[in-house]
Amino acid sequence: RAGGEGAHRLGRGGEPVGLAPQRVGVRCYKSGARDGGDSHFRAAVGSGTYIRSLARELGEALGCGAHLTALRRLAVGAFTVEEAISLDALRAGAAAVRPLLAAVAHLARADIDATAVDRVRRGQALEAAFAAAGPVALTHGGELVAIARPHESRWQPEVVLAS
């Protein structure tokens, strides 16, 4: 992103885009089939890694240039394409939707009482029950209430799901 604006938008608008190099995590890279000048690959990457940029940079390193003609996301965190359900199946009631807590299972979790839930609904910060290095999933009665960010000795709600 360049100044908060998507670099692809700036580029398509004809504006020059100067982006600083960023360190990214590529946990796995596997070359696949080749078809003429096309090469297929799979990559497991960390958050903030742009596969289109990775392909371009690999082409530059090889001295031949490269770009993506197709991109398919196979997983995000614990969610995989094999577990995906179709919209039609969901509409027909033939598919179960995973609980919200499954989407944030990687976050620290804190159960809060009903008084704290009311405060969170109003966007008010809570005293942190423990030190957290990143976002915290706030729950009540086994349900996800909010995602909060630690700020000093408090948790500030950023995404509130309780109504």
Question: What is the strand and helix layout of this fold?
Answer:
Blueprint: H1 7-12, E1 26-35, E2 38-45, H2 51-62, E3 75-76, E4 79-80, H3 87-91, H4 100-103, E5 108-111, H5 114-121, E6 126-127, E7 136-140, E8 143-151, E9 154-160
Would you kindly provide a written description of the structure presented here, covering whatever features stand out?
By secondary structure, the chain is an alpha+beta fold. 21% of the residues lie in helices and 30% in strands. It has helices spanning 7-12, 51-62, 87-91, 100-103, 114-121, and strands at 26-35, 38-45, 75-76, 79-80, 108-111, 126-127, 136-140, 143-151, 154-160.
What letter string, H or E per element, gives the SSE order? HEEHEEHHEHEEEE
Neighbour order of strands in the largest sheet? 5-7-8-9-6
Could you list the spans in which at least 5 consecutive residues all have pLDDT below 50? none
Biggest sheet statistics:
5 strands, mixed
Helix content: 10-25%
Indicate the structural class: alpha+beta
* Number of separate strands: 9
Provide mean pLDDT, rounded.
88
Strand content: 25-35%
Q: What count of helical segments does DSSP give?
A: 5
The span between the termini is 33 Å
Overall outline: extended
Q: Rg, please? A: 21 Å
Keywords for this entry:
alpha+beta, two-stranded antiparallel ribbon, 21% helix
Brief characterization of the structure:
This protein is α+β, with helices and mostly antiparallel strands. 21% of the residues lie in helices and 30% in strands. The chain has helices at 7-12, 51-62, 87-91, 100-103, 114-121; strands at 26-35, 38-45, 75-76, 79-80, 108-111, 126-127, 136-140, 143-151, 154-160.
